[in-house]
């Protein structure tokens, strides 16, 4: 049974200044340039907690939270709350709205089949986030999960709440409007807990945070005489129905730094794909992918030429897929790209992130990385459907890293959750 609970939120007060100067993107989306920009906005900017620039970053984050709480820059609510969160944004000129809830979710190991991952994780970022948890004993950012609500019970309930005046409204630097509503009515809290108890949850963003929280929970249990109600048994989570119309996934394109596109490579690719030359422009490449979004389609760019690839035969390719699930379930574009194009045709070995393989969130950025010499080949893909992510995750199988980009990310800095030993939920 899934257990969600209200929590006593910690948030900025008016003393901190303009909220627009305080909020940030999630820590793993903050580039060194953006980090400097955030630091310049305010001495209380949230980047100073989630990604301090100082060498002693964990100690710096811990000291800042204590000072800000003591000085009234941060305040902790007396009454437990569940939040309803709404983002309004544009994608390809289309107006979108996404609504979800923010609550304390009990931490479940993956083997309990309550919470499922969908991507591969790495040790280094998990160690980093675990060190942050140890230092500050706070959930600074939510984990983003999806669940299924085919009858729209929660969809309708959350939408009804958003008809009232929000507690917070703010627009981030990317033009996304964020609003949250506080739910403290006991009847509404009871209803939300009841309708969520039989749900299965899939992590869309925050795998490293979730797995770090599990490790932190286990450490705290070893150190303390713990109870089921201890806050460290939970994590602050943002949960969205997979049926939500505004649940948008953007593609994450792959770039290889060493491989080259030769005549032999093209001939090898023709064994699996129908290849056509495409004008090497952002518009032409995006048009090719969009017109073939119901097929297994890719584009390749090498700095001077671009090609569109359409898979010929799923059966032949399925035999080359390296995965622990039924072949038909694993025929996802990013898996075909990894197991057939990279491993079978290009014969690349293990790809280390930022060394052998780079990622780009837009077609333009991918082309620029090749043109600037940062990479030799760009492989452009269509986004993975949210429903596909949902289905595959529950087969206990993970997509390659950086397979999805659920957009937009929940903004960081609106709320945090206390998980210190004495905090109870």
Automatic annotation (TrEMBL):
This is DUF1015 domain-containing protein. It comes from miscellaneous Crenarchaeota group-1 archaeon SG8-32-3.
């Amino acid at each position: 049974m899934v257990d969600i609970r209200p929590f006593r939120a910690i948030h900025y007060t008016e003393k901190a200044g303009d909220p627009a100067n305080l909020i940030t993107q999630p820590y793993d989306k903050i580039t060194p340039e953006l980090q400097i920009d955030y630091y310049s906005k305010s001495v209380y900017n949230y980047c100073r907690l989630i990604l301090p620039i100082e060498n002693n970053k964990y100690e710096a984050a811990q000291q800042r939270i204590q000072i800000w709480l003591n000085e009234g820059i941060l305040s902790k609510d007396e009454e437990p709350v569940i939040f309803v969160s709404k983002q309004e944004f544009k994608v390809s000129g289309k107006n979108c709205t996404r609504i979800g809830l923010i609550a304390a979710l009990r931490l479940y190991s993956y083997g309990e089949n309550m919470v499922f991952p969908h991507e591969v994780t790495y040790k280094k970022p998990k160690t980093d986030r675990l060190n942050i948890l140890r230092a500050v004993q706070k959930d600074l950012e939510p984990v983003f999960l999806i669940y299924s609500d085919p009858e729209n019970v929660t969809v309708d309930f959350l939408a009804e709440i958003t008809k009232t005046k929000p507690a917070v409204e703010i627009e981030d630097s990317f033009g996304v409007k964020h609003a949250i509503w506080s739910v403290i009515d006991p009847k509404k809290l009871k209803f939300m807990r009841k309708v969520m108890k039989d749900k299965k949850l899939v992590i869309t963003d925050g795998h490293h945070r979730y797995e770090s929280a599990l490790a932190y929970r286990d450490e705290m249990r070893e150190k303390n005489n713990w109870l089921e109600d201890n806050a460290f048994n939970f994590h602050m989570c943002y949960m969205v129905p997979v049926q939500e119309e505004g649940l948008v996934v953007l593609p994450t394109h792959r770039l290889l730094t060493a491989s080259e596109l030769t005549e032999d490579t093209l001939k090898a690719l023709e064994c699996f794909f129908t290849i056509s030359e495409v004008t090497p422009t952002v518009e032409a490449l995006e048009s090719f992918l969009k017109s073939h979004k119901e097929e297994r389609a890719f584009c390749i760019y090498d700095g001077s030429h671009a090609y569109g690839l359409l898979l010929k035969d799923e059966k032949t390719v399925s035999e080359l897929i390296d995965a622990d699930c039924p072949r038909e379930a694993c025929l996802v574009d990013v898996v075909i790209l990894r197991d057939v194009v990279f491993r079978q045709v290009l014969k690349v070995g293990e790809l280390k992130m930022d060394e052998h393989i780079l990622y780009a969130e837009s077609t333009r950025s991918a082309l620029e990385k090749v043109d600037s010499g940062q990479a030799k080949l760009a492989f452009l893909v269509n986004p993975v459907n949210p429903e596909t992510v949902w289905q595959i995750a529950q087969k206990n199988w993970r997509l390659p890293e950086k397979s999805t980009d659920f957009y937009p990310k929940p903004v960081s800095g609106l709320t945090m959750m206390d998980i210190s030993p004495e905090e109870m939920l």
